[in-house]
Write a structure and sequence with these properties.
This protein is of the alpha/beta class. Helix 8 runs parallel beside helix 10, helix 9 packs across helix 13 and helix 10 packs across helix 13. The protein folds into 2 domains: about 220 residues, Spore Coat Polysaccharide Biosynthesis Protein SpsA, Chain A; about 170 residues, Orthogonal Bundle (Hypothetical protein af1432), CATH 1.10.3210. It is elongated. It is about 45% helix and about 10% strand.
Length: about 400
């Protein structure tokens, strides 16, 4: 997250007709979240506090996403966590951002850029221009662009993927007078071309910067890409562990937990219980990514969200204190991750009693903590028994299977 967030703003362009799409792009859901809401949350996660949404066509439909509480039924994540604890549910909140209406939206996107820059806080130093049809850009992209700008003040920073320019460009406020005085014939591209000697193309590993949606086919492709983003593969997970200096012992534990969790999921799948093994694997590989920090579940989840791994982040954030609710019978990805984590002592499979006993001794003087430990492990024993009954095998037998 930005430490100097007040220096930067973002203009989200959501005023267009969406004529090729046939329906409002801003309302198209990703994991149950409208594209506009997703972009607002993305910029918030990056630490940007100056957020301006430019509205135009059908603005009355989009205003509730900004000013009112959203409909929780429209904001359910891709996986059904409806029966899990409140901590795992997607939190519904009011989006505290400003909107501005562009009366000239019929004249093209550049008029929306002009409307947006006209109301930006005069104290910021630079601003992003973010079309609503680029909804998958992860928060980390904003941080990378800001880092480049900090090293090159007053330059325009444009994200690229494999040499292709994408969104969102980060522009210095010195361009605002020129933007406002431009007749818009060639738009923002013309202004950036005029000042190309002060333009930096920043190559990033995020394909999402060049992905947008103009048609239904584009939207379908982006939806599939979003689903894929939620489950980073093993190589990506291991790179993150290296990047964040995960201790060797914690890395080995993450790999062991992932192996056990996936084996349990695969064993259950043979008996008709379908779980997302890819989500389980990626969440397990990253669950102790910053184990050497205090609140490592929350911090690890925050990192995962910076990279767009939203569903994995939910599991990572709650893996330590998750407790299955009363009457919950369906086994979930969260259940499998938490059980595998409890039964892996570093890289060795152990009995649940063996994991619980040291905790009980450590907090023997604190009755409340002891009670919480007992409740969590009681649920874990029940889950272990349930898996044994369904599969006809013990966890040890599942672990030792090839």
């Amino acid at each position: 997250m930005l430490t100097n967030s007040k220096k930067y703003g973002v203009i989200i362009l959501a005023a267009g007709f969406s004529s090729r799409m046939g329906e409002l792009k801003a309302m198209l859901p990703f994991g149950g979240i409208p594209a506009l809401s997703k972009l607002i949350r993305t910029t918030k996660l990056a630490g940007i506090t100056e957020i301006v949404v430019v509205l135009g066509y059908n603005s009355e439909t989009l205003l509730p996403l900004i000013d009112c509480e959203m409909d929780s039924e429209k904001l359910q994540p891709l996986l059904d966590y409806e029966k899990q604890t409140e901590n795992v549910k997607l939190q519904i909140e009011k989006e505290t951002v400003r909107s501005v209406f562009n009366p000239n939206y019929e004249q093209g996107m550049f008029t929306s850029v002009q409307a947006g820059v006209s109301v930006l806080n005069p104290e910021i130093e630079a601003f992003f221009v973010l079309p609503v049809d680029c909804p998958l850009i992860p928060p980390q992209v904003f941080l990378d662009l800001v880092n480049a700008y900090e090293d090159n003040p007053s330059f325009m920073i444009v994200p690229c993927f494999n040499g292709k320019k994408g969104h969102p460009p980060l522009l210095p406020v010195s361009l605002i007078p020129e933007i406002l005085n431009n007749n818009g014939e060639k738009g923002l591209k013309e202004i950036m071309t005029i000042h190309q000697e002060k333009l930096i193309r920043l190559d990033l590993d995020f394909e999402e910067v060049v992905m947008d949606m103009d048609s239904k086919e584009d939207y379908k492709a982006l939806t599939l890409h979003w689903e894929k983003m939620q489950t980073p593969d093993c190589d990506n997970c291991l790179r993150l562990l290296e990047q964040f200096n995960t201790p060797t012992f914690a890395k080995a534990h993450c790999i062991a937990v992932a192996d056990l969790a996936v084996k349990i999921a695969e064993a259950l799948s043979k008996h008709g219980i379908k779980l997302n093994s890819d989500l389980i694997r990626s969440s397990a590989l990253l669950h102790d990514m910053v184990r050497d920090r205090p609140r490592h579940g929350e911090e690890g989840a925050a990192i995962a969200r910076l990279y767009g791994f939203d569903l994995a982040a939910d599991l990572i954030e709650n893996h330590m204190f998750y407790l299955k609710g009363k009457g919950d019978e369906a086994i979930t990805e969260m259940d499998i991750l938490c059980l595998a984590d409890k039964m892996m002592k570093e890289t060795q499979l152990v009995d649940l009693n063996e994991r619980a006993q040291p905790m009980m001794e450590k907090f023997s003087e604190d009755a409340k903590i002891i009670e919480r430990i007992q409740v969590r492990f009681k649920k874990a024993f029940e889950l272990e028994s349930q898996i044994n009954q369904i599969t006809g095998r013990t966890i040890k037998e599942i672990w030792q299977s090839v």
